[in-house]
Structures are given as C-alpha cells and as structure tokens.
Amino acid sequence: MSARTLFDKLWDSHQVAAESESTPGVLYIDLHMVHEVTSPQAFDELRSRGLKVRRPDRTLATLDHSTPTLPPGADGKRPYFTKEAEAQVAKLEANVQEFGIDLMGWDSPHRGVVHVAGPEVGATQPGMTIVCGDSHTATHGAFGALAFGIGTTEVGHVLATQCLLQRKPKSFAIHVDGQLQVGVTAKDLILHIIGKIGIAGGTGYVLEYTGEAVRALSMEERMTVCNMSIEAGARAGLVAPDETTFAWLKGRERAPQGAAWDEAVATWRTLTTDEGATYDREVRIDASTIQPSVTYGTHPGMVVPIHAPVPAAADALEQRALDYMKVTAGKPIAGEAVDVVFIGSCTNGRLSDLRAAAEILRGRHVAEGVRMLVVPGSEQVRREAESEGLHEVFLNAGAEWRQPGCSMCIAMNGDMAQPGQLVVATSNRNFEGRQGKGARTVLASPLVAAASAVAGRVADPREYLNQEVAA
Amino acid sequence: MSTATRPLTYVHSRTAVLRDENIDTDRIIPARFLTTTERTGLGKHAFEDWRYAADGSDNPSFPLNQPQARGCSILVAGRNFGCGSSREHAPWALLDYGINAVISNEIADIFRGNALKNGLLAIVLTDAEHRWLLDNPGIELRIDIASSSIRLPDGGSIHFELESFARHCLLNGVDQMGFLLQQDDAITAYEHRTEKAA
After folding, report:
1. Which of A443, A380, A379 is nearest to A408 (CA)?
2. Degrees (nearest 5) of the Cα angle A14, A19, A24?
C-alpha cells in the first residue's frame, strides 16, 4: 500500500462503505459524546421513528453547557439561570434513562466539560473516530483520534446507526519546529497558527500538527492546540500518538487494561504518517519566534503578540471590529484595562492550566475592580486542584472558585460579562456577544489571564514569572 | 416530527445582502437561545443582537431591517458565513426567519452541512460572482437545484457546485436517516470485521 497520512489511516479504517460519485461514504463512529444542548431534538427524532440507540455502549453523555457553576442553595436547589436551562438538563437526564446511555451527571465524580471529561476517563483513545454535537470535539484529536463536531441531525444519525455520511476532507500539515520560550504556552502557539493561516484557512481540511515543538507538548497542551482547530475552520486536528499519549492514558477507567492494553499500544504505534506520504497543504512554523499572544478583534484570527501594535484596519469591516473592541490601531493590547478574567473551558480548564494561573496568583491579589472567575473543566480537575490547594490560592487572591462547566466561555448558564466589559478569557471564541451581549473578549493563555487579573490591565506573564513574592 | 424535508427544486426571490465577513453562529443565533429543546420558533431571535435596538425595536442599521430586504428569502453574505459552532440552531433560525438560501464565496463546513440537511441552500460562488451579488442587492434570482444554476434578471446564469448526494436529497426530499438505516447489514458486517460488535 502506498504511503498514507495518519488521517488517511483513520479514515480508511472506519469506512463501512466507500464514497462514490453519487453518495458520500459511510463512516463508523467509535465514540459519541452527548451533552444537553445539541441532543434533545435528536432523541425526539429517534422517539418519533420508534428507533433505539444502536450502541449505547459507545455513547457517553455529560452535563456542561447550561449548568450553573454555583453550588445548590440552602434549599438544595441548583441555581439554574432559567427554567429552560433546568428543563434542558432534565430532558437529557430523562433521555439517557430511556435510551440506556451512561451519563456523567450531577452525582458523578466525572461530570465536566465534554472535552475535558471524555479524555479524563479514558474514553478518548488513539485510532478512534469520535463525534459530538459540539465544534470543539476537535480536542480529542490530540490522542490521534479523528474527532469532529456535528449538528443535531447528525447526532440523530449516530445515535440510530453509529454512522455518518461523509465525504473525505483534505489534509493539511502544520509543522512546528523549534521550542516554545518560557512564558509562551500551547495557547499562544494555536493562536499564532490561527493568525497565520486565518480563520477559514483550514476550511475543508483535517489538520495534523507535527514537528519538534508539538512532540514536546504534554497531552493537556496538545488538547489545547487541537481544541482550536475549528477556529481556523478545520473540523478536526490531529497529533500522532506517542509515549506521552500512552503514559497519560494508562490506567484510566475506560482505557484498555492488562493484556488488552499492550495489544492496543502496539496498534496505536502504527498511527503515524508514513515516510513519503503527502498532504494537500503544508505550512512550517518556528515555535521559538512565538510571543505570548492575544486577540484584538472579534474573531480568533485577529491575533497579535501581546506587545505588538494592533494592525490598522484593512477595510470598514475590520474597523467595525476594532470599534466594537474599543481598541486603537498602532497601540498594543498590553496595557488595556481589564474588567473580568475568566479561566476555564475545554481549551484551558485542565489541571495544568489552573497550576499555571496559580503560579502567577500565589501571594498576589486580583486588582481592585477586576472580577476573576476560575472554573475547573471537570469534577476531577476540581478535586485534584483542591487537593493541591490551588482553590485557596485563587480564593486568597480574590478570585471566585466555581463548579465545573462551560460557564463564561459560551455564557449560557448566567456566567456572563456586562455590556462593554473587557474580558481576558482562556476560552476559544471572541465573537461579538459570545461572553454576554456587548462583552469584549481578549483570548489569551492562563498565564496572560492571571497576570492581567493581577495587573488590572492586559499584562505579560513574564513580568511576574521571574519575580519573587512574599508568601 | 421528522427531519425528512419536502422536495425543494428551486428558490426564487430578491436578494438581501449582509456584507460582513465571518458572520459567526453566535451572531446568527446567540447562545442564550440554545436552551430550547425544540427546532422551531428560533426565527424571532435570528441575528438578535444585531437586529434589535436596546429597547427591543428594530435596529434601522441592520441591513435585513431595510424595507427592500423584507420578504427576501435569498441571503448574500460576506466571506466565511456560519463560522464557529456546530449549533444546528443557526440554520433552524434562518429558515424560521424566512431565509431559504445563503450565498457566499466561502461557507463554514459544519454550518454548510447542517444547512443542506435542513433544506437551507448553502451556495459557494467564485469571488467575482460573489462580489457582483454583494454590489447588487435586491436583484431577483432563481436558484435551480437540478441544474445547479442561478438565473439572473438579464437572462444570464451562474453555475454552482452542489455535492451530488445533497442535491439528490434536496430534490427528492430524501431522508438521510432512512438512507443510513438501510445500511444496517453493512454496518453490522463492519462491526464484526473490526471486532467492534457489542
């Protein structure tokens, strides 16, 4: 067989029926993750047709988008933002009962943001196809799984048949050479990549991140990178599995155990792009030149190094984005006054992200007038952070320590910014109104977010990392 | 309720134009309206934060609020329409608002797939064709699905690419769930061949 890319191998091994001129291929899905927002209409569809879920054992649900991040009140009731949010969660709880699906629900020690919780329990494994009614499903590609977001009609298709009708996308290699500097994170890397290829640069492609700098990333960092593939227009992003992947997965609840583990690892080692395989498109990036990066506009491709001047608007539409953000061309984002800092989300809500933020906040205090929310990505992240005392670092610094959920990334659950407020957020989208009507979002790493909380203005974390503080 | 759509052979309307590029799914339907568990009723919230003024009245500077844009079912939009999330609420909201076709020179992948599955035409044209449509709002177009062509008022026409299966499904009201369910034997065979059977 001719040389194949990792993507080719994943695609080929999941073909139930090959595509033809007249019909797309039938692609088998190994793992379907489900949450409350994009699934109710799909379950209704199954019910109206008298269908069952074909593979409940390959379906895993969680509650994350509409869920409050404040604990239940004295009356034991959870403080849902609206009755509709509460009803939506209740509907998923009823649907999983009726259709026999596992739910990482309110009483589960594993509940969390779908793309944090899934990998954590070992459900996400190399070589799989993984879908969810959520565009950040690309996250799971960090394990060498072909993972992408789907709409609710397709959620219904997978529930009923475990398959999707798909035409094969093209492949796009992002080679990242060199090493990231101190204070420069995986978040800065992916923001830089999106800035370079543009927010539609990956449309029609599956990205594969390769090269020395990618190999050096931890699993959590790889998840941050793959997570934002969709912000470059690509439905999926991949990193070939390696020893880092296997070490991270080993022993997790849903990962293979014993002899099955050894067998699985042997198979996973074959999941690399063959020597001589070709991609439809390639770019090369030097990691050593990347600076802490921030967005300045209203989409994730409008990104600059933190001290670099905001570029002049190329046209009236770009000027509109600068006006919405109340930023000035020619001035850097560093120094902009900050109202809110949000640390969390499927992009940067994992333990290592919280540790990074705590490193800056330890012994320091959030600036007066700044509201800071720290929202762990899952119950497991919350437990681990609390066992290390990170929550005390955040609370002592004057930040709010919340329960897991999507929270202010999508602002569906009542966690939102007020009109005009500037939010430095570790999440993934800075669209107009994304974090609340009129809210202005600056996307950044957990280090930049924490430094900005302390400074009360957008700040370079390197100003704090080398500084001793009185504990 | 079934997603099987009625056969759609053409869309005939004047065009309304939103020149903005990168109109994302949060702008099409803000996330706070995603707590619905229905597919219907989202039209009144389409473009909510753009379309209404703070007091709830129509924002006169929103192009689709202009008198000449009212009743148009073909939307010509700037590059990269529908980027962002996978929420199918975006095409549901547009259809409920009265839009039956979106034309751009680039449309985000997930949005495009979702749109076509719901009978919302998502058409990508060349930069030149697209620019001409952006610059000539309000012209009458007839989009013919069988021939994948758009008839212009002067009798000329523009060809567009439409994935063959999507075209077949639109023209015949084919229900893709039904199509997949018919693959049951092949799916079972795959599960056995790959040791993925339950």
Report:
1. A443
2. 95
Cβ atoms of residues B17 and B132 within 8 Å:
no
pLDDT tens string A312-337: 999 998 999 999 999 999 999 999 99
Alpha helix (H) residue ranges in B15-88: 25-28, 48-51
**pTM of the predicted model, to two decimals?**
0.97
Q: What is the DSSP letter of A418?
A: P
Q: Is A400 exposed, middle or buried (0-12, 13-18, 19+ CB in 10 A)?
A: middle
Spatial contact of A288 and A14, defined as CB atoms under 8 Å apart? no
The answer for A 411-440 residues in CB contact with B (under 8 A) is: 411-412, 429, 431-434, 437-438
Please name which of A256, A206, A219, A142 lies closest in space to residue A7, comparing C-alpha atoms: A206
Phi, psi of B160 (to 5 degrees): -135, 155
Nearest alpha carbon to residue A168 among A351, A13, A316, A324: A13
- Partners of B38 on chain A (C-beta within 8 Å) are 41
Band of residue A470 on the pLDDT scale cut at 50, 70, 90: low
The C-alpha atoms of residue B122 and residue A102 are separated, in whole angstroms, by 36
Complex ipTM: 0.96
Query: B72 CA to chain A: closest CA distance, Å?
Result: 23
Cβ atoms < 10 Å from Cβ of A109: 12
